[in-house]
Amino acid sequence: QVQLAESGGGSVQAGGSLRLSCAASGYTSCWYGLNLSWYRQAPGKEREFVSGIGEDGSTSYADSVKGRFTISRDSAKKTLYLQMDSLKPEDTAMYYCKRACGNLYWWGKGTLVTISS
Question: For residue 24, which of 90, 77, 87, 63 has the smallest C-alpha distance?
Fold first, then answer.
């Protein structure tokens, strides 16, 4: 089993920055198909993809966060990051990390981000 623990959420004003972290523990070995990603869910809305990083380091972003958010990872620390700059009120949501290995995947419990105007 894999456990994921997000941290770094909080309340900031629009235009500010936050850095989210997602630490993995447990059986984290993945022989193929490792994909790490961030999702978010705003109140009353569906969970949506924010950003992902593949096994080869390739990254992808939702259009709504391109140019403002940066995903990265530290494999030695088994930690995934999301640097969020130029935050907007519409970025307010619970942010979740997801770890996928082949056909298996795990979710963290989330960290709350609140952006005030």
Answer: 77
